User: Fold this.
Amino acid sequence: MAEITKDHVAEVLGDIATMLELKDENVFKIRAYQNAARAMETFSGNLAQAVGEGTLEKLAGVGKAIAEKISELVVTGNLSYYNILKAEFPPGIFDMFGITGMGPKKIQAVWKKLGITSVGELEAACGDGRVAGMKGFGEKTAANILKAIEDRKKYAGRFLIGDIEEDAMAMREFLRELPEVTRVEACGSFRRRRETCGDLDFLVSTREPEQVSGRFVKHEFVESVIAHGATKSSVRWKTGIQADLRVVTEEQFPFALNYFTGSKEHNLVMRQRALARGWTLNEYRLGEAPKGEGQPVPEIHEEADIYRALGLDFIPPELRESMGEFAAAEQHTLPRLIERENLRGTFHNHTTASDGRSTLREMADAAIALGLEYLGIADHSKASFQAHGLDEARLLAQVEEIHALNKELGPGFRLFAGSEVDILKDGSLDLPDEVLAQLDYVVASVHSVFSLPEAEMTKRIIRAMENKHVTMLGHLTGRLLLSREAYAVDHAAIIEAAAATGTIIELNANPRRLDMDWRWWPLAKEKGVKCAINPDAHHTSQLQYLHFGIGTARKGWLRKSDVVNGLPLGKIEAVLAAKRGMKGG
Ligand code: DGT
Ligand code: CA
Ligand code: CA
Ligand code: ZN
Assistant:
């Protein structure tokens, strides 16, 4: 039996709280499960050991009754209370929680009053006026729910790269270690580091196609087999994503690697370039055209050889979106793209002072362990009250704490004291200039009033950037990939204003955001606007998000010199202070 993880326990406890809410149970009971779920998420000890020694009850937020339930779950792999509770509900009802705006109260109402037990039924009832006619709902609510259902359909079937990477790498390693396999890669949008992927495209070369395909379709990740052949198989994993496997020979591998990496638009140009030389290019070979005219076909061993044969420098997978890479590869002007190892530090990180789950000390230790030379702290400001944003007094106390910790940690590593200050509706900031002036740097972000018209939102953000204390702009569009649309904002105008005011633009590396989008970085670079790759970490483990930010930065054609946190300690300070010294700033 697989070991029960803390995350799994937290999820079960959270589900219980949700079901109790649906049943309209006592709020204290509901809260007890919610607290216990949170306690599990942040529990840093060994779960099996705590169960064995009976010490779970000592955890804040875990009472005797819940401790017993956790023990049952950890020891037996099952929780009877949870199973019994779950059986009381029609299964489709839980899907409704995935619709923005549908909480337990509303779900209970449509279930009890209209007998709705699935998203499909909910959609129909929003369409025919039944939902609008219910007490506490109305036309507007029904329309919002309908829109949320449509949005979900639009996103259905795509996955965040942050959610699939671990399994994709595990599968790649699994295939690599098969003795029959010579070469392997995960191709498609995943290799191009797109922010979301429709499916995964694995490629292997081997002399034993049946054996390798057989292992692929029987892997423990697999929920169902869609197609199973010697050279082509498709499966659905338990996580919901489809994974394809292509099996080729060693000689075919570079061509298949190039073809299945895509994009389709990139492939099209590659094929045209081959045709222009009198050759044909497909996923298996570069061949002479039927007429047998033209130059002899060069030998190909690696993917780079294909590019060379077509008169091109090697194009990194991230750039293969048919957005100018061919012209640059022909003229030898492709940029040398930034790499993870180039990052010396990072900004925009939260601690337990606002809505983070790790302490200042833990964050500093984790940054040091990652080999970073500096870490910027930027907790929320007071207007973000739901995130326990800091007021002036708490912020200044944190600055003191940071100074003290810097002394303790000694040279070679530094915490920078900052704030993620809210940009208020009119573009003013949530904290006064006298307070901001005492910080090492400031990230300014929009966290409220998302529905302004584009012109007003753009003006609002530009006004914030005009404040000389605003070092960088946080998550430009506020988008949450696959769940919340970006608010309307004029990217080009923001980039212009960033250039004019000397404001850095953040590349928020949280895989749910990856904001500013990669498509806009070439313009920023052209205008001389600098990038800061920030994980927006709310836990020590999330400092690793930098890795996803690097993928997006590379897709945006960024070099080390375009990214301020490529600078070491000793050089970065001047960049953070530059705007304050600017004339008229
Ligand atoms: P996705 O899965 O929607 O995130 O995007 P991709 O790019 O991974 O697309 P996918 O999985 O349909 O196909 C993988 C690659 O195979 C794609 O990037 C390029 C190549 N490919 C697939 N179908 C075609 C096609 O009809 N024409 C060309 N030229 N290439 C194709
Ligand atoms: Ca794909
Ligand atoms: Ca595919
Ligand atoms: Zn934020």
